[in-house]
Amino acid sequence: RQNGSMLCVGLDPEPTKFPAAYKGDANKIYDFCARIVDATADLVSSFKPQIAYFAAHRAESQLERLMEHMRRVAPHVPIILDAKRGDIGSTAEQYAKEAFDRYGADAVTLSPFMGFDSVQPYLQYPGKGAFLLCRTSNPGGDDLQNQRLASIDGQPLLYEHVARLAQGPWNLNGQLGLVVGATYPAEIERVRAIAPTVPLLIPGVGAQGGDALATVRAGWRPDGPIIVNSSRAILYASAGEDFAEAARREAIRTRDVLQAAEAGRLKALWAIGYDVALTNPNSSATKSALSKLDLA
Q1: pTM for the whole thing?
Q2: Of 17, 84, 97, 287, which one is the catalytic site residue?
Q3: Is 84 a catalytic residue?
């Protein structure tokens, strides 16, 4: 957090949405994304390139160039490769090699639904991380994630069970985080209660309708970091030649909203008794005090 930011800029390049000089030209994916990176590198906690947006245009070589560019101009900013991989161990080993050796990512997003042996190969890379899909922001997430597991004690919802695994038995070396969509603040709060110290990657702020203020209130804790992703709202803040400058303005606005919410919540924790609030974050006394400060 050298930049003092919770904001992650998602790099989801769609040539049809590029400004006029680049519009419709998949060969300009690197140029477009590099301009965004240069305009926001001092504002973000991380960058998150979505691999499908590159692969669909046969632009993997442009992604490799972009990764090199990010490491060169912003070596202090982690890069999360948004790949959402999920496969058996031997294939997972190849995907891990792709993410960490080929592209040089610092972390990768994964689907955990094939079990721990599909996650474990990524944990063999010291200093690298993996964010497991937990409660996603798409409407169809309810089809599986919001269903109860009758065979597990307490019959938790599937996303609650994933959160427990990431906080506990799967997180052998502290390398795991969770993906929780910003469009469901109540679920963010529930995941944070189950996994109090696991980093949360929270997409969906901006164009997907997630509320940045509600996201921080629900997920941020002094010992529980959050990474709040915004993609389209920043990438396509302008369709003109000033697209990079407009992206910077939107990134500053989002970063400042997140920082204000963080500062307010921390102030509230101190006001009600920092140690008590951390020990009992879900107690009625803590919630009551935070709600009076509009920070519950």
Answers
A1: 0.88
A2: 84
A3: yes
